[in-house]
Structure formats: C-alpha cells, structure tokens
Design a protein that fits this description.
The protein has 9 helices and 2 strands. It has about 210 residues and is mainly α. It has one domain. A two-stranded antiparallel ribbon has the order 1-2. The protein is globular and about 50 Å long.
C-alpha cells in the first residue's frame, strides 16, 4: 500500500481499498476515514437523485434534505462495514444510504407541518451561523439565534434524526456485482444525537451540495 505524505489524504483505489479498510479497522485513522468519506460522498447524491418523492404526500422536502438524510447512512456504513465479509463497501453503503433516506421520509411524512417548519428553521440557522463564523455552529449559538430553549432544540433534533425501521424489509442490488443485501440488516443506527456525529454529517453535505 503506497503511503502518502502526512499532510495529504490517502488515495483509495479499487486495488488498495481492502488494505485501507483493514488498517482503518485496526487504528480508526481519521485520515483514512476522511478519505473514505471523500471517495464515497457522491453515492449520497446518487441515492438522493434516484429516490422519487411524491410531493402530494411529502411536502417541503428539498434535495438538500435528502442529502442530509443520506449522509447519516454513509457515516453509519463507514462505522459498521466489515471488510472481511463478501460484500463490497459500495453495495453496503448505497443500501444504507437509501434506507436512511426512506426511513427519514416516512417519519417526516407523519410529522405535523409546524414541526417540519421548526426543524428547517434550525437547519437554516445552523447554516447561517457556519457561514458567519466559518466553523461548525454550536447548539448554544443556534438556540440563541432562534430564541428557543435547549429542551426545544433537543426535541426538534430528536424529531429530525431518530430512526424507525419497522417497515424496511426490501433487498437492494447495485447492479455492479452479485452483492445483495437487506436494507433491514443494515439499519442499526449510530448515536445520531452526538454533536460530533451531527457535525460530520454537515461536513459530508458540504462536499455534495
């Protein structure tokens, strides 16, 4: 495996990817993780484009929302992928990304419009603060900007990012190889309320939209 300068991310190719995965599982290298995110972030955009939303049933959903939902799936896939199993990461990740998007759409479809509106306000405030501050916005800064309590903020984040997997039972196939994987089998959620996890999701979104 070719080593790169310390100030550069590893270049992951089809030939060396398995070796990098083995190394990543041993030491959880942030640089390898970032390189994996960079390589596979386009899968989130691909999945978001593939999903056909019925605006009659689910209103106020934008492409960026789908990217955000899918970003959770990509990060979960990186956390949970086992390189020793006979499934390519692309297959596993794409299944998890699409499952995450569908899962969030089902949940949002059951939320009142007022709650969806409040969630969007939080996201807009976060984006504005990050543009102004040139760094990740802290929850305290977001609630100060919006004039809401931390309890309200946590409630909205819970609505926006909790997972429900009761109706996911389909099989997803990439078409690239013989890999076939159940969406239900991939959706064991990470702690999506963790601030570091949320910040990483925002970083993935910025690479895409």
């Amino acid at each position: 495996m070719k080593q790169n300068r310390k100030d550069k991310l590893p270049i992951i190719t089809e030939e060396n990817e398995h070796e990098y995965w083995i190394e990543f599982r041993k030491n959880l290298s942030p640089r390898i993780r970032e390189a994996i995110v960079k390589k596979y972030a386009p899968l989130v955009k691909y999945a978001a484009n593939k999903i056909n939303i019925s605006t009659k049933n689910i209103r106020d959903i934008e492409f960026e929302d789908l990217v955000g939902f899918g970003s959770f799936g990509l990060l979960d896939a990186i956390d949970r992928y086992d390189p020793n199993k006979d499934v390519k990461f692309k297959t596993y990740a794409l299944t998890r990304i699409m499952g995450s998007i569908y899962d969030e759409l089902r949940k949002l479809d059951s939320l009142p419009r007022s709650i969806r509106k409040d969630i969007k306000e939080v996201e807009k405030a976060r984006e504005l603060l990050e543009i102004h501050l040139r760094r990740d916005a802290k929850p305290e800064e977001i609630i100060s900007m919006l004039g809401i309590t931390m309890d309200k903020y946590n409630e909205l984040m819970g609505y926006g990012i909790q997972s429900s997997i009761t109706s996911l039972s389909g099989i997803f196939y990439t078409g690239d190889d013989a890999d076939e994987i159940s969406i239900m089998d991939t959706l064991k959620s990470s702690d999506k309320t963790n601030p570091e996890y949320l910040a990483e999701r925002e970083a993935v979104k910025k690479q895409i939209v």
